[in-house]
Amino acid sequence: MSTKEKILVLDFGSQTTQLIARRVREEKVYCEIHPFNVSIDQIKAMAPTGIILSGGPASVYDPEAPSISPEVFELGLPMLGICYGMQLTCHLLGGLVERCAHREYGPAKLTIDEVNDIFYGLAPPPVTHQVWMSHGDRIEKLPSGFKAIAHSETCPVAAMRHESLPIYGVQFHPEVAHTEIGADIISNFLFRICGCSPSWDMRSFVEITTRQIKEKVGDGRVVCALSGGVDSTVTALLINRAIGRNLICVFVNNGLLRKNEAETVLAFLEQLDLNVQYVDASRRFLERLKGVDDPEKKRKIIGEEFIHIFEEEAKRAGKVHFLAQGTLYPDVIESVSFKGPSAVIKSHHNVGGLPEVMKLELIEPLRELFKDEVRKVARELGMPDELINRHPFPGPGLAIRVLGAVTEERLDILREADAIVLEEMKASGWYQKVWQAFAVLLPIHTVGVMGDERTYDNVVAIRCVESLDAMTADWARLPYDLMARLSNRIINEVRGVNRVCYDISPKPPATIEWE
Ligand code: XMP
Questions:
Q1: Given 104, 214, 226, 499, which residue has the most CB atoms within 10 angstroms?
Q2: Domains parsed from the chain with CATH numbers
Q3: CA–CA distance, 425 with 421 (Å, rounded to integer)
Q4: Residues 77, 166 contacting (CB under 8 angstroms)
Q5: Helix count (H) and strand count (E) of the chain?
Q6: 353: exposed, middle or buried (C-beta count within 10 Å: 0-12, 13-18, 19+)?
């Protein structure tokens, strides 16, 4: 394992900064993301092999525009600026960036003028390559010593390089899947320009993360919020590797779990030999949720209650300094806003609800990973497949799937319907094929007829989506006979339901959870 080779990604606030890191990891090279304003001394101390400057929503000529010390370009390190990162390179080194007459978002055709270096091995003109653009500014005049190496119809400098230094820039986004040659460009930068070797993998991730946790925690004690899902379990296993019994895992039954969830999870956790405290706080949560139907309020209440419980458990356990959570990157990007660019979609995921005054320091070892990467780490840690392949389940549980007020009775209806969905998905082999499948209980009643009786009962919606990382998703095209079985069983077996709908909304514009 070599972490001597390290790519530093400086983040200027793009929604796709983590995708850059992910692409680097896919090439088996270690990489760290840091905010754009790390000092030059910190950069030197990190001794990176190369630096990637991310995109971002600002314009370089804004007075508040995020910037870096021009000294970075004097370190002699290979550098790749992406979109804003390229414009900043140009601006800092004496070129001219101006607003485009027409902003350019979406696919564009790239012609490579110099098939070499970052474009090594790619097809020369007349072939054009589909790339993904997202910019309102463009380079009007290159700094001295630079030349354009690719263009598009609307962008004369779609890529640039320095004539003698290893400094590159691309106006488009090589990190997104729509840029067909993106992986080639990143791999060329890493291997041809930076001279890295593909030696990093999830085993290295486990080793590095374990070491970092050990360093951060020392002899301290950590309390970990364990839900039995793959994210929090992997978090716990990593910390367990680092500090053993100084980790106290708390599994809270908030009364918002699925049918038989508490028993199943406890049985799993027992197998993994973690130090687990089970807290049945169902009453407490349901009491506080009484009469609340606003989803954001539900999330806030549940978040707060969780934290109170963790604080209490931490106190009971003696001296504890840290709280560990299985927060993943999509949770972070949709919940917190970095200097404004990424809009807050929901105050949700594990990040929301944390009171500012929380007295425990956070540890989130998976904060930079996507779900499929976490599953790879889980495999590395020897977790059983059944646990690894469980669908994601939101922290606020069924509270955000019972729309409107949450009552025991409505939770029970949803539990029964949800259990049928999971059972049928598993029996038909579809559970493994989709990202998530679950039932939602709507806050309305509709008329039906059962036997010869009129009914006025609940509606259950089935949400079943395919996705790679939960950032985007599409509804799964389930076979009709499976849908028919789901509907028949729910209507016949779950008292109080007389209608079943199937959700055919993609994300965006819908989200996966209904809330
Ligand atoms: P949305 O509804 O935002 O959900 O499209 C994206 C993914 O995140 C899951 N989700 C959560 N996971 N804590 C979690 O750990 C939460 O508060 C939370 N809310 C949503 C959701 O199930 C989907 O997979």
A1: 226
A2: 7-193 (3.40.50.880), 202-388 (3.40.50.620), 401-502 (3.30.300.10)
A3: 6
A4: yes
A5: 14, 18
A6: buried
Give the single-character DSSP code of 405: S
Residue with CA nearest ligand 1 atom 10:
394
What tens digit of pLDDT does each residue of 201-256 get? 999 999 999 999 999 999 999 999 898 899 999 999 999 999 999 999 999 999 99
The backbone torsions φ and ψ at residue 82, rounded to the nearest 5 degrees and listed phi first, read -110, 120
CB 145 within 8 A of CB 186: no
Pocket of ligand 1 (CB under 6 A): 334, 346, 348-350, 392, 394-396, 436, 470, 507, 511-513
pTM of the model: 0.76
How close is the Cα of 169 to the center of ligand 1, in Å? 35
pLDDT at residue 403 is higher than 80? yes
Nearest ligand 1 atom to alpha carbon 393: 22
Q: What is the largest CA-CA distance in the chain?
A: 85
Q: Which atom of ligand 1 is nearest to the CA of 371?
A: 24
Phi, psi of 281 (to 5 degrees): -115, 20
Q: Are the C-beta atoms of 233 and 193 separated by less than 8 Å?
A: no
Q: Is 240 exposed, middle or buried (0-12, 13-18, 19+ CB in 10 A)?
A: buried
Residue 274 has pLDDT above 80, yes or no: yes
Q: Could you check whether the bond before residue 124 is cis, i.e. omega within 30 degrees of 0?
A: no
- Pairing of β 96-112 and β 129-141: antiparallel
Q: Could you give the residue numbers annotated as active site?
A: 83, 173, 175
Sole residue written with tokens 């003028």? 113
Q: Which residue is closest in CA terms to ligand 1's atom 20?
A: 394
Whose structure tokens read 């900064």?
A: 17
| Residue whose CA lies nearest to ligand 1 atom number 24 | 392
Distance CA 258, CA 47 (A): 48
What atom in ligand 1 is closest to the CA of residue 514? Answer: 2
